Every structure is written in C-alpha cells, then in structure tokens.
Amino acid sequence: KGYFTYDPGFMATSACESKITFIDGDQGILLHRGYPIGQLAEQAEYLEVCYLLLNGELPNAEQKAEFAKLINSHTMVNDQLRKFFEGFRRDAHPMAIMCGVVGALSAFYHDNLDVNDSKHREITAIRLIAKIPTIAAMSYKYTVGQPFVYPRNDLGYAENFLHMMFSVPADPNYKVNPVLAKAMDRIFTLHADHEQNASTSTVRLAGSTGANPYACISAGIAALWGPAHGGANEAVLKMLDEIGTVENVAGFMEKVKTKEVKLMGFGHRVYKNFDPRAKVMKQTCDEVLAALGINDPQLALAMELERIALSDPYFVERKLYPNVDFYSGIILKAIGIPTAMFTVIFALARTVGWISHWLEMHSASYKIGRPRQLYTGYTQRDFVPVDKR
Ligand code: CMC
C-alpha cells in the first residue's frame, strides 16, 4: 500500500484502451483505424479522415456528402462570441485567444449538454469540427485588425478556412488558390490524430471528470501550445530565422550537441526510426514550393540541418529524426500563414483527434484519471506557532 509504479513522463504507462490510432515508433508506422497515414494524406480529403476517426470507417459517397453538409451547417459562431475577441489585446498570441474563445464556447453550450447522451456528444463533435476554422481565422483577423470574414458553405473545409483567413471585403473577387487549399487540407490530415500525446491525454483527463467538452478542448489547446508539442512548428521557423544562412548551420549544430539549444522539429517520444508524417510533409513542401515557383532559402537551410543530423553520430545514437513539424512551417509560410498562426493550424486539425478520443472515452465505461505520485517531502511533523518559527 502506498507504492505505485513510478513512471515520470508516462514512458511506460497505457492509460486507456483505444481503437482509433496505432503507432509503431520503431517501424515508423502510423495508422488511423487501420489505414496508413501516407495513403490518407495522399488520397483522402481531411473531412473523410474526420469521419473515419469519429466513426471508425471511411464514408461512402453519400455519407461523405451528408457529413460535409452537416459540418457546413455549423460553421457559424454565435454573434456574441465576437465580444470575447474584443477583450483581447490586438497583439495577443492567437493561441491565447484560442484557449479563451474555445473555452468560452462552454458558456454557450452548457445547460442543455448531457455528456451521457450520445446524441449530445455527436452534435458537440460536429460543432467543434465545424466552428474551429471559423474561430481560428477570427483569431488571426483580430490580431491584424481586419473585419471578421463569415464562412462560405459552398467551399471545401480547407478552402473555406483560407477564405476566412485571407479574403477582405474590399476584394470580392478573392479566390483561394486550389494548390494552397489542397496543401492545407493535407496538413490538416497529417495533424488529425496521434493517439495519447500530451494534448489528447489532457483532453481525456479533463473529460474523465465529466467536464464540459468545450472546456476540455480548451485544455487540450493549452497543452498543445508548448514548444515541446504543437508549438514546435513556430519554434522551427524562429530557429531557421536565427540560423540565417547555410554557413551557420554547422556552428548551430555544435550548440545543439553541447545542449545549449534544441534542434526544433527533431526527435519524438514514440518515433525512434522516422516520423511517417514528416516524409509526406517534405514531399508536400517540395510540391507546394514548385507549384508556386518559390525558392525559399529556408528550405535549403532545413535540408542542411537534416543532412548533418542524419549523419552525425550524436543525432543517430539518440535516434533523432525530423518530425511532422520540421517542414510544415515552410509550407505554411508559402501558403501565407503568419508564424504565430502555425500552432493554431495544428490545434484546428487536431480538434477531430481530441474529440474522437473524448467520444471513445464517453461511449464506454471509464474511470476518472487520477495519477499517483512518489512523495519525496517531509514525514509528519508538528505545527509550529508563528511566534516560534
Ligand atoms: N534536439 C536536441 N537533442 C534532443 C532533441 C532535440 N530536438 N530531442 C531529444 N534530444 C536529446 C535529449 O537531449 C536526450 O539526450 P541525452 O540522452 O544526452 O540526455 C535524448 O535526445 C533523448 O531525449 P528526451 O528528451 O529524453 O526525449 P523525449 O521523448 O522526452 O522528448 C520531444 C521528445 C519531442 C519532447 C523532444 O525530442 C523535443 O523536445 N523535440 C523538439 C521539439 C519538437 O520538435 N516537438 C514536436 C514533436 S512532434 C509534434 C507533436 O507531437 O507535437
């Protein structure tokens, strides 16, 4: 009694059973409901992947059209929500806005929400997937001082997001470049789910108390924000900016080896061979830059970092490979997404993963998440009155 398995960082603890996502870190395999991530990223649309994660099967043509229609009918947010935006400073980080505004949705959907009712859970999932691009785009528009752009329900999911990000009332002819919409859609798919990572575990833990699901997703967004997790994509671009030129790469890598700095976008708790998402991301990066005719010097920088890391024993011994965030920033930059929005894009795409895990947990019996600890403080001692201390 009183002794528990000590597992800091949950290196060896399975906290739940799940049928959603499988990862074999040694082989570099990632499957959603059995389908390899490479096939999904190349052949499926993001909304099909959402349907798959939520329901366990890919939709047929009719189910796909119905699902898209359902999502499109929930893209608007309550007009009162804009007041929450107005409470933020214009220079607020958009992830701070996301934590606050998504958490605020719990105030709009609380009293009539019964987490024990499957219909209530389903509509919650739909609302979140539908509204998160609207809120994400609003968080960007607010920080640049432009009016919010309403969702257009005749557009595809990624296309609509880019429309809300970049169209302005002064340019009614604005049209989203289909190459960019396709790349955005693929980035969403590559981030859709990743089993029990820190943010998903946070959503499950918060959800295990029966808390309001919008508040749980807000907790997930907060956990994602850190540079060791979703914040890495923003940190990669900052790192590339700091390195500046290819000539400085070798010197930077020496600093990584003396542990002065971390190589952002490298390493993973689970993948010790390669991150299968990074492969598709690099290929997408090449395609997007070629299609747009962009010659980004940061791509050359990133490739030189990768080349050194893959051949230097320091990185090889520690099994440090590029992860999903290493090349995503270069594509997002090419699409025109500002750096501060990179982690917001991750949050947008991961919302389906978070809510799928929340649904899975609530559709079976579960226990409140309650880790124990290894106590290293004082043994019992007597209280000392203030005049005797
Ligand atoms: N740069 C330099 N050294 C590293 C890095 C890195 N990015 N990652 C790990 N190491 C070293 C670490 O110093 C340690 O060395 P030593 O054995 O000499 O002490 C060894 O590799 C093992 O690392 P660890 O810290 O025990 O690994 P972890 O599983 O606890 O951490 C990680 C995983 C992702 C937090 C870490 O690799 C990291 O901070 N990477 C950079 C941030 C990043 O790119 N995160 C995105 C992850 S993928 C997207 C997502 O899931 O959000």
TrEMBL record:
Entries under SUPFAM superfamilies matching the protein: Citrate synthase
Entry keyword Transport: no
Stretches that traverse the bilayer: 326-349
Reaction equations catalysed: oxaloacetate + acetyl-CoA + H2O = citrate + CoA + H(+)
Pfam assignment, any one: Citrate_synt
Record-level GO BP terms: tricarboxylic acid cycle
A GO-annotated cellular component: cytoplasm
GO function term, MF aspect, one: citrate synthase activity
InterPro entries: Citrate_synth-like_lrg_a-sub, Citrate_synth-like_sm_a-sub, Citrate_synthase, Citrate_synthase_AS, Citrate_synthase_bac-typ, Citrate_synthase_sf, Citrate_synthase_typ-I
Active-site residues, Swiss-Prot/TrEMBL: 268, 325
Pathway it works in: Carbohydrate metabolism; tricarboxylic acid cycle; isocitrate from oxaloacetate: step 1/2
Keywords: Acyltransferase, Membrane, Transferase, Transmembrane, Transmembrane helix, Tricarboxylic acid cycle
Annotated family: Belongs to the citrate synthase family.
Identification of the protein by name: Citrate synthase
The organism of origin for this protein: Amnimonas aquatica
Primary gene name: gltA
